[in-house]
Write a structure and sequence with these properties.
The protein has about 240 residues and is α/β, with parallel strands linked by helices. The chain has a single domain (about 5-235), classed as Rossmann fold (3-Layer(aba) Sandwich), CATH 3.40.50.150. It has helices at about 5-25, 40, 65-70, 85-100, 135-150, 185-195, and strands at about 55-60, 75-85, 105-110, 120-130, 150-170, 175, 200-215, 220-235. Helix 4 links the parallel strand 2 (about 75-85) and strand 3. The longest helix is centred in the N-terminal third of the chain and has 21 residues, at about 5-25. The mean pLDDT is about 95. The structure holds S-adenosylmethionine. S-adenosylmethionine (SAM) binds near residues 82, 84 and 133.
Length: about 240
């Protein structure tokens, strides 16, 4: 993908997220922001004995997952929350005040590519529907390495990534260019993840074919994807 194509996808993607975040409030019933991702909240018991937890949420959005984690670990966690969209981070900051977790939430406007993950620092790193928005496949692979190095011993990585995405104009049936910077084949992505977390305890590993309607410029897109979930625990140093 050249720079012009990247810019075009990123601009469309940003506009789409502004639209989504403007039309639904965090935890609004009936919206996709209604509740946190269960795979994320299922991880809470793993940290019940921790006195303090450092968490990283890459592509955090308006706080659907990090705010419930901050509530759960109130007074004993810091969550670095990274999003490329200043609109999302502003909403996140205001949500963190509304849910009384502003001390725990550290909102950062940055691309995932530019955010350097400190090695051996985080007890939990989550990236939910976010890593497919890194600049390109090489950048994605580098970030995967940074993520695995960024986790402490017994720390957990929880990734949900879309692969093999297709988009079609819902009204006309016309094929659209998927608005994702990284759109790997499911097998290729599965191989990359298996390699990145070789020797780790695999807590969850699933591939689910899903279909969504999502707003795009001037149309609704009928999107199909293989959603890959991997939750892995670093059982060595
Ligand atoms: C599908 S949303 C998911 C948000 C959140 N993880 C959740 O589950 O509610 C993807 C988020 O990633 C952000 N994003 C997209 N590209 C990004 C990038 N290159 N770097 C950082 N954030 C990015 C978007 O602004 C958006 O908030």
């Amino acid at each position: 993908m050249n720079t012009k194509q990247l810019k075009s996808i990123r601009d469309a993607e940003k506009a789409s997220h502004i639209e989504i975040y403007s039309t639904a409030k965090l935890f609004e019933s009936g919206s996709w922001l209604q509740k946190p991702v269960k795979t994320v909240t299922d991880l809470i018991p793993y940290f019940s004995n921790y006195h303090y937890i450092n968490i990283l949420d890459l592509g955090c959005g308006v706080g659907r997952n990090c705010i419930p984690l901050a509530q759960e670990f109130k007074g004993k966690c810091k969550i670095d929350c990274v999003d490329i969209l200043d609109f999302a981070v502003k909403e996140l900051n205001s949500n963190s005040i509304n849910y009384d977790v502003e001390k725990e939430i550290n909102g950062l406007v940055s691309s995932i590519d530019d955010f350097q993950i400190t090695p051996n620092h985080y007890d939990l790193i989550i990236a939910i529907s976010a890593l497919e928005h890194t600049d390109n496949t090489d950048s994605f692979k580098n970030k995967l390495t940074e993520i695995s190095n960024g986790v402490t011993k017994n720390g957990i990585v929880c990734l949900i990534i879309n692969s093999q995405i297709t988009e079609v104009n819902k009204e006309t049936g016309q094929e659209l260019i998927p608005q994702f910077e990284v759109n790997l084949k499911t097998q290729e992505l599965t191989d990359l993840l298996n390699n990145a977390f070789k020797g780790w305890e695999i807590i969850k590993s699933t591939v689910r074919n899903q279909r969504y309607d999502i707003p795009r410029k001037n149309c609704i897109s009928d999107l199909t994807t293989d959603v890959i979930t991997i939750v892995a625990r670093k059982i060595y140093n």
